[in-house]
Amino acid sequence: MLGLLLISATVGVSVDEVRDVESDVTDRIVDTLSVRIQEHSGLTVVRDTMLWNSCTRDDRCIEDVRSRTKTRDVAFVQIFGGVRRVRVRIDHVEPSGERRSARATIPLGTDFGPALRKVVEQTFSPGAAPPPPPPPIVVAPAPVESPSRWPIWVAAGLTVAATGAAIGFGLSARSASSDLEGRVTRPEEYDALSSRANQHGAISNAAWISAGVAAAATLALVVFDLVDDDAAAER
User: Fold this and answer.
1) Which residues are within 8 A (CB) of 224 and not within 5 positions of it... i.e. 6 or more apart?
2) One domain for residues 172 and 219
3) How confident is the model at residue 21 (pLDDT cuts 50, 70, 90)?
4) How confident is the model at residue 156 (pLDDT cuts 50, 70, 90)?
5) pTM of the shown model
6) Which of 56, 61, 89, 127 is the most exposed, having the fewest neighbouring CB atoms within 10 Å of its CB?
7) Which residue has the higher pLDDT, 58 or 94?
């Protein structure tokens, strides 16, 4: 399978006729032509080892070039010199057998590249464009979960409840004390009012202490929650 891929990615170039052209000019033309073929079609050029063989380009000749270059795509190059210009002809024989030809006349002493590029574009199909780069992978930050605030609500609820109990029992104890001081009572009534004043007063005091503790706990939880939010925002 790898051998088939290599064959399909190459083209054999055979210089089958050269007339009135110096060897260094011929080499420059063939080298430039090879570069243009590879740039345009993506095919790697394999030069035929037999130069200037005056191939007739019949089926046997084509198979000979394919055998020497180990390719299925072949191109025949003819170069004819002149006083001021050089003429280049390319005959491209694709693996399917389809043939395409093109010619170019190039003034001597000029850059061969532009003219040979046009010849290659007329005889070779463009190679496949490279695949676009994959889209960048964007990693979304993990959502920051808000810490649970139920301890704050529990502490706040205890604060409200303890404060309400302290106020209620405190008013009850004060009312009993007022009754004891403001009017004469029977002994049994006196004992009941005195007991209520003492008990409710003690409960009110304990409730005020509990309310203070719960309020302090609520404040501390609120502060810790704000600190955690700031830390999460910085992350």
Assistant:
1) none
2) yes
3) confident
4) confident
5) 0.49
6) 56
7) 94
- Total of domains in the chain: 2
Q: Is residue 35 part of a domain?
A: yes
The torsion of the CA quartet 14, 17, 20, 24, rounded to 10 degrees, works out to 10
Q: What is the DSSP string of 129-186?
A: PPPPPPPPPP-PPPP-PPPP-HHHHHHHHHHHHHHHHHHHHHHHHHHHHHHHHHS---
Examine the domain organization and report whether 225 and 162 are in the same domain. yes
State yes or no: pLDDT of 142 exceeds 70.
no
pLDDT on residue 2: 33
Domain shared by 58 and 20, yes or no: yes
In this structure, what CATH number is given to the domain that contains residue 109? 3.30.360.20
Q: Which residue has the higher pLDDT, 7 or 161?
A: 161
CA atoms 166, 168, 173, 178: torsion sign: positive
Question: Which DSSP string do the residues of 99-129 spell out, in sequence order?
Answer: EEEEEEEEETTS-SHHHHHHHHHHHSPPPPP
Q: Which domain holds residue 207?
A: 150-234
